[in-house]
Amino acid sequence: MNKAWWLACAVLIYFFYLPITAVQAVTIVSTSTVNVSARVPGPEDEVASSTPSSGGGGGGGSVIVNTQLVLSGVAYPLARLVLWRNGVSTDNYSVGLDGKFKINLSNVGAGWLNLVIYAQDSDGAYAKPYSLPVYLTAGAITNVEGIVIAPTISADQASLKQGQWLKIFGQTAPESQVAISVEAVDKELASIWSDALGRYSYNLSTDQLKAAYYQAWSRVYYKNREAVNSKVLSFLVLEQPVDKAVDKPASPGACELIADFNNDCKVNLVDFSIAAYWYKRASPPSRLDLHKNGRIDLADLSIMAYYWTG
Amino acid sequence: MKILRRQGCCLLGLIMVWFCFAPSVEAAKLRLLGPEAPVAVGQEMRIDLVLDPEGQDLNAVGVRVNWPAELELLAILDAQSIVSLWTERPRYDGQDLILSGVIPGGYTGSYSPGGSTAGPGIIVSVLAKSKRVGKALIAVSEAELYPNDGSGEVVYPDKERLMVKSSESLPVMDLVKAKTSDDKNSPQGLVASIERDALVADNQWFVTFSAYDQESGIKNFYIDESKNPEPSGDWLVAGSPFILIDQSRSSYVFIKAVDWNGNEALISLAPASSSVSLLKLGGWWWRWWLIAMMGVGVIALAYLIKKIRRHYL
User: Considering A50, A180, B1, B173, which has the largest number of Cβ atoms within 10 A of its Cβ?
Assistant: First the structure.
């Protein structure tokens, strides 16, 4: 009888606890809250184009109202914004000194548009893409306001000895609160402020860290309300004097971009095609097998999508 | 024995209390949305496979849906899909609806006017028709999602089913009209490039391409390899990547994206320097050819003038 009780308990724990821990392991979103609205364009909207009437003889013209999308928010000063439409880079925009942006897209199709905004800071570091599937009403101007682009994050070294200092830095919205977190360290490690150019920097002491791989990320609190996470930065803390052989992780390619199979310093449609060619085929090249399970499957493509540069 | 039983009860009680107060994290959900009321036999209907990420950031989805024999599948539409790139374009294999694809940038939910929170998004829509009286159960049989964190670790979503009831006595109404006929616009964002890489097909040339259509959706891509600057008309249905038939790269490659209402977008890729391109007017060779010919003409004219002057002076 007592065995049956323990068995029942074990089964209960298995069926309840396991799914919850599995779910908790998943990335939980921390993107900004945006406001989406649509309105019919009026005569003050410059983007609407007008064509002369076909009747001739002077007089009025008919206004063709295009479906338009206006995106606004904050990135970082002098950043470069790239828009992807359905995973393909289409447009580039430069951000001014205040870090704010407003992008007008005219002649876009009505319906659902899978839009991603991708930022590169003034040092060339890439931010986590901002995903924005949005519904565009035909003939209306759809406004998406309040976009906060994720901070960039970099470190001055990929591996270091215990006791050495690791400089973590990046760029975000100007004069905003930035929290630095390191995996295995409780809560947020430090709270700092970005400067007028959106730059932030933090020196991490590795005195208390055991020899292992660690992950760090930053989070911006824009105007004290929007919390947006950066990409995850990996670094290695070593017990021994820094060994040249493990100083740097194995280079995935000439540009050190994971999933850049053709070494063109981009992870884009061409790399996707290379992986798609081997999708579920036997004996794929080991370089393509990002998930290291002997085949090219959706797990590999998910890893590629994470490192996508467009 | 009684003590052990009490211990077991206590443990169970603790577990129940823990589950009541533990922070709950919802799993992502795959839903099937369709008609809730009974439909008439022969009635067209739209069924949406929808992803609710429940606060998670996801970037890949693979789904297999058991399709009932009682429903005739008329069309599979991906115009409103949240999936940007298909590894397996949605297809019906006679028993199941199968699809997989990725979302670069991740997916946290969809935004529509008037809202500030992200809602669920459509993965694929299916136009179907009831074939006979009775119940038809549509169920997601396999599903895997992947988080947008570079880990490649699978997440299993909650799966919902949809029961469609068909009745003879109901009139056939045009409740859901296939909007494909309203689409007057060509597919957008057609991009293509010819590449070769030792990792693909023994370093053979291949063409990679992509496009999207927000209204009726892309029905098919076609490829035509032609020796002339115009398509030959031998269009082949193709998926990306497509290994080129003409590996000499002396052909023009035309890629056509066609939506469900027949609207087309076309792109052409010129051959590498070859005999074919030499025949094309306006090419780079043509400018050099003209310059060379003009040079020869000038020299010949100068020579002629010199001859004439010598002869008469």
Answer: A180
